[in-house]
Design brief:
- The chain folds into two domains: 1-33 and 228-258; 45-226, no CATH class.
- The protein starts with a helix and ends with a helix.
- It is an alpha+beta fold and 258 residues long.
- Helix 1 packs antiparallel against helix 5 (230-257).
- A hairpin with a 6-residue loop joins strand 2 and strand 3.
- It is elongated, with a radius of gyration of 29 Å.
- The longest helix is centred in the first third of the chain and has 32 residues, at 2-33.
- It is 28% helix and 36% strand.
- It has a five-stranded mixed barrel. It has a four-stranded antiparallel β-sheet with strand order 5-4-10-9, with no helix packed on it.
Amino acid sequence: MLVIGIALLIGAAILAPLAFLALRRWLAQRAVAEVRPNALAAWAGRPVSLSGLAAPGPEGGIESRLAGTDCVWHGHEVLRHYWLWRTREDGGERERVRNCDSIADHGSADLFGIVGAAGAERRRGGAVLVDPDDAEVDGVHMCLQRVVGRPQRGVPAPADDLLNRVKGRISGIFRGETIEFEYREWVLRPGDPIVVHGRMELRDGRPVVTAPPDGRLRIECGAPPESQPQNQRANALLLSGGTLASACVGLLLTLSGV
């Protein structure tokens, strides 16, 4: 009994550091999965991927420029559709083909937040902020798509109400004969599920997800929140339970064998 008890105590001593590391790793991953601002502050300078719900930033919600939709982020684009004449490669004849160019493209740069899917962090410590400046955004909701014909001389253009709201200046090479202009706008609404891939920074003590030094911030909308890594949780619990069981049984056998 004494030998078995001592062997179990030695095994518990070996498992204890492994169990501690596994438990610490699992708790860190859990903090990321639940988007806890206080825990994520320790990730400053490291790449992160956060899953949660979009939330208003420090200044509150904003409105999209073209449609006036309530949102936390918005972006718009103006496309110019036109006819272009080109020479066919087979017979050398000229043909008219339809083409389009982007002549305006804008995405808002206002900070917004991301909170855990359960919304608990909205009540405890606020949201982790996201800096969307020049971000790559995928899957966001299109709130406006309007096609407006080519302006006619002496006739008020129906696109005037949108043209004045376009951010920045209209630019590009105006080739061929204009057919129409197409206005598109996308928004990220409060409560939309998102996944944000970037780099964690601290600004005035608050964690902010920004673009990595060698790339762009990536925001995916509509993706389901990532599940808690079950294998890490199982490993942590298994090692902790094994360590505790070995220590208890080893201690009892050692005491009974003395």
